[in-house]
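Tutorial handout. Part one gives the primary structure; part two gives the three-dimensional structure as tokens.
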Amino acid sequence: MFVSEGLQDVAITGQDWIKETCADVEMLQDLEYGKIRLVVAVPKSFATNSITDLMEDLWSKGRNFRVSTEYLNIAAEYIKSNPAYQKRFGDAEPLIVTPWWRKGSNTRAKIFLSFGATEAKPPENSDCIIDVTETGSTIEANNLKIIDTVMRSSAVLIANKTALRDPEKKEKIYDILTLLKGVVDGSKRIHIFVNVKKSNLQKLLAELPALKNPTIAPLADENWCSVNTIIEKDHLIELLPKIRKLAQGIVVYEPRQVLALDQITRRETDKCPSKPG
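Part two.
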């Protein structure tokens, strides 16, 4: 919210909280860590395995459907989008209950703000929870089971949209973006070196389309050269048989950063005004 309101220019946060707060920010880079799922979980003792069946069962018995969560807005949107809810209540807003205020009119679907230990709320204080999980172990330990995934989230780099229209601030923000993107890209790629006979060089390049712009250097033996380049880590096993037939002496290491300066500059120049001069 600080970034959205212009109190801060740049920050790292979770995609889940951007959606929950409806923050009007620019998402610059998925940092690909802090990966979680926002899930719906119910007690294992419940026979139901779907949110629709759970709601219908409660309503048919004249009971209210109760949710405990920290994600009030996401939960309300999720419940309202359910066809069973829409069939019964149309566009009515679920009732959101906090210690300070209430919002919404439909008392048949209540969303309670949870203050920690959300997993402990069912079944006495809620019929289900909407909470984050990374491995599911905490949910399992509290005798709950996951019946749906509301969304997936990870850490992202965000910026204030007004700040990005300021030439000086934009340059500093994209310096940060360049460094963080380099770490993300570096974690997914590897640097390989291979020695190849010059007579096999073109065959090697043709077999390995990943080697679009490799660095090629001569060796002490004028009939051989060295080829080094960056490839996707997941492609190494697939490429090894081809490399073995045409080259020798492969060396592999993981770079800490891969800085794609041209890609960032080209992409972002189209989105934001360039610095004068």
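Part three, for discussion. The longest helix spans residues 167-188. The CA atoms of residues 80 and 90 lie 8 Å apart.
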